[in-house]
Amino acid sequence: MSKSEVAGLPVLRDGDVVPCCPPITAGELSRADAEEMAAMFKALSDPVRLRLFSKIASHPGGEACVCDIADVGVSQPTVSHHLKKLREAGLLTSERRGTWVYYQVAPSVVAAMAAMLDLRG
């Protein structure tokens, strides 16, 4: 892909959202489901990461350039570290466009986390 090309991202519709884990009220979580969800919640347990995640999720268009979200009260290398942790936990996706990296909340992650915590199960 050349620097001038823009990759298309898949668009999920409501019917396409598949939670990673069953609701907490559906029964005991499997070890794998618990580890997957714990990694996501652990990544969000840091205030800087939670602010970055919030900035990206609420950014117009659903994606944000790192240049637009870096003002969270820590240095740029620390922002990069936190964004890496969010990506590793599966909460964010990223795409390099020229010299900038654009971040987006991973498709269906928020819905999956909400479904897992839904007590109405």
For the residues shown, what is the average pLDDT? Answer: 80
The major β-sheet equals: 3 strands, antiparallel
Rounded to the nearest angstrom, the distance between the terminal CA atoms is 44 Å
Give the amount of beta strand, in percent.
5-15%
In the sheet with the most strands, the strands line up as 1-3-2
Shape: elongated
> What's the β-strand tally?
3
Helix percent band: 40-55%
Kindly describe this structure.
- The protein has five helices and three strands; from the N terminus they run H-H-E-H-H-E-E-H.
- It has 121 residues and is of the alpha+beta class.
- It has a three-stranded antiparallel sheet with strand order 1-3-2.
- A hairpin with a 2-residue loop joins strand 2 and strand 3 (100-105).
- It is elongated.
- The N and C termini lie far apart (44 Å).
- Mean pLDDT is 80; it is low at 1-18.
Topology:
Elements: H1 31-44, H2 47-58, E1 63-65, H3 66-69, H4 76-88, E2 92-97, E3 100-105, H5 109-117
Antiparallel strand pairs: 1-3, 2-3
Helix pairs in contact: 2-4
